[in-house]
């Protein structure tokens, strides 16, 4: 059983469409990070959220941290082929100290 | 800027052979990690280090050993490779960012055990 559940596992959309991916846990996060990984490369940090209800925007990407700090979402507006990749959420849990726990990821494919 | 460098990038082993993966970082980070990435499983922590000369077990440590003799290097060893260790291995180093830790990853090392 994964400590972090990401959904959907795979998403294939047309350029210009909007999408949302989710990251959920039954435990409270001390912090939540989103990473993006392209084929043949390592993950790269997109954002860190630490406060319940926090919303952060990065160009066309909007990240939200749930009020109870047990879930997060990533919304992409007007997706572009360059958004294609694996999106990973990673949660910091108090009982795990400084080790992040990663979800299995959402594979996003944006077709032109 | 090199960041985190992993060698080798690709390796094929036969069952029972041994090998070492090398990770080097030039960011003066205290913390370093080894993860493995398998389809549908995400990144799972194998071992990590909070400083030179220290190591600790992660989520899936069995069959692996590590050493951190120098702050900039973190080695991952497989003493007797098994097909179940076929995976992509990522090294990362980290620095604190507020209440969290930003991980910087290498490009990965793809290992196949036959």
Description:
- The complex is a heterodimer of chains A (112) and B (114).
- With 112 residues, chain A is mainly beta.
- Chain A has strands at residues 5-7, 10-14, 19-24, 31-37, 44-49, 55-58, 61-65, 71-76, 85-92, 100-102, 106-111.
- The model of chain A has no long low-confidence stretch (mean pLDDT 91).
- By secondary structure, chain B is mainly β.
- Chain B has one domain (4-108): Sandwich (Immunoglobulin-like), CATH 2.60.40.10.
- Chain B has no helices and eleven strands.
- At the A-B interface, strand 4, strand 5 and strand 9 of A face strand 4, strand 5, strand 9 and strand 10 of B.
How would you describe this structure in keywords?
heterodimer, A: 112 residues, mainly beta, Immunoglobulin-like, five-stranded antiparallel β-sheet, 11 strands, 0% helix, B: Immunoglobulin-like
Quick recap of the structure?
The complex is a heterodimer of chains A (112) and B (114). By secondary structure, chain A is an all-beta fold.
Mean pLDDT of chain B: 93
Q: Structural class, from secondary structure content of chain A? A: mainly beta
What is the domain total for the residues of chain A? 1
Spans where pLDDT lies below 50 across 5 or more residues of chain A = none
Instruction: Give the SSE string of chain A.
Output: EEEEEEEEEEE
Quaternary organisation of the protein chains: heterodimer
The number of distinct helices of chain A, counting runs of at least 4 residues, comes to 0
Radius of gyration of chain A, Cα only, in angstroms? 13 Å
Computed over alpha carbons, the radius of gyration of chain B is 13 Å
Largest sheet of chain A: 6 strands, mixed
CATH topology of chain A: Immunoglobulin-like
CATH superfamily of chain A: Immunoglobulins
The overall number of domains of chain B is 1
Q: Supply the CATH class of chain A.
A: Mainly Beta
Number of strands of chain B: 11
Indicate the proportion of strand residues of chain A. Answer: over 45%
Give the largest interface pair and sizes: A-B, 26 and 28 residues
- How many beta strands in the DSSP annotation of chain A? 11
CATH architecture of chain B: Sandwich
Major beta-sheet overview of chain B: 7 strands, mixed
* Whole-number mean pLDDT of chain A: 91
């Amino acid at each position: 059983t994964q400590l972090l559940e990401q959904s959907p596992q795979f998403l294939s959309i047309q350029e210009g469409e909007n999408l949302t991916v989710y990251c959920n846990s039954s435990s409270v996060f001390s912090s939540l990070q989103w990473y993006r990984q392209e084929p043949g490369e390592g993950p790269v940090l997109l954002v860190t959220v630490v406060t319940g209800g926090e919303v952060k925007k990065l160009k066309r990407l909007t990240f939200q941290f749930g009020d109870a700090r047990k879930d997060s979402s990533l919304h992409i507006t007007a997706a572009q082929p360059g958004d294609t990749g694996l999106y990973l959420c990673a949660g910091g849990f108090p009982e795990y100290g400084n080790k992040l726990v990663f979800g299995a990821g959402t594979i996003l494919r944006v077709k032109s | 800027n090199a960041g985190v460098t992993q060698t080798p990038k690709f390796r094929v082993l036969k069952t029972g052979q041994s090998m070492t993966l090398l990770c080097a970082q030039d960011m003066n980070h205290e913390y370093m990690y080894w993860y493995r990435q398998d389809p549908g499983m995400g990144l799972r922590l194998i071992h990590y280090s909070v400083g030179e000369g220290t190591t600790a077990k992660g989520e899936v440590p069995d069959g692996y050993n590590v050493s951190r003799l120098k702050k900039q290097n973190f080695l991952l060893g497989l003493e007797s490779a098994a097909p179940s260790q076929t995976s992509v291995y990522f090294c990362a180093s980290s620095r604190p960012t507020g209440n969290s830790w930003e991980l910087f990853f290498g490009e990965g090392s793809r290992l196949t055990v036959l």
